[in-house]
Design goal:
This protein is of the alpha+beta class and 130 residues long. The protein has three helices and seven strands; from the N terminus they run αββαβαββββ. The model is unreliable at 1-21 (pLDDT under 50). The radius of gyration is 15 Å and the shape is globular. The protein has one domain: Immunoglobulin-like, CATH 2.60.40. The N and C termini lie far apart (42 Å). Helices cover 23% and strands 44% of the residues. The chain has a four-stranded antiparallel beta sheet, with no helix packed on it.
């Protein structure tokens, strides 16, 4: 099996693990521009009470990016993921970086773990110009 095919199969397994139990992540909304630190939000579409109690979410580590065959952007170093209440109800993942984003497209791997398992979700962010 080619490395890319193997990575896709592994990502599919991780995605299935938690989604079968209820955690679903929605689309990403980017609120930052080129040259500014990353600011983005992802809606949590669904989560069970048991998952919410033990849910930990972060930008995946460099090793996970390498294993998945996905390019890691230096602008993701030290990025935080916080779970916050959205203004219109559903909870959100708020991603904030410290380093300026220098690329127009950034691959973002979000890793979520809970008592139900692990989810790895890949997003491609388009960073707008100022």
């Amino acid at each position: 099996m080619r490395a890319g095919s193997r990575a896709a199969a592994v990502l599919g397994l991780f995605i299935t693990t938690l989604q079968a139990h209820g955690l679903e992540l929605g689309e990403v909304r980017v609120h930052s521009a080129l040259g500014a630190p990353l600011r983005a939000e992802i809606r949590i579409a669904a989560v069970t009470a048991a998952e919410a109690a033990s849910l930990k979410v972060a930008v995946a580590g460099v090793e996970t990016y390498m294993a998945a065959g996905v390019d890691y952007s230096p602008s993701l170093e030290a990025a935080r993921v916080d779970i916050v209440q959205g203004p219109d109800g559903p909870a959100l993942l708020r991603i904030t970086g410290k380093s300026p984003v220098r690329e127009e497209f950034v691959d973002l791997l979000i890793e979520a773990t809970s008592s139900s398992g692990r989810l790895l979700r890949d997003y491609t962010l388009r960073i707008g110009k100022r």
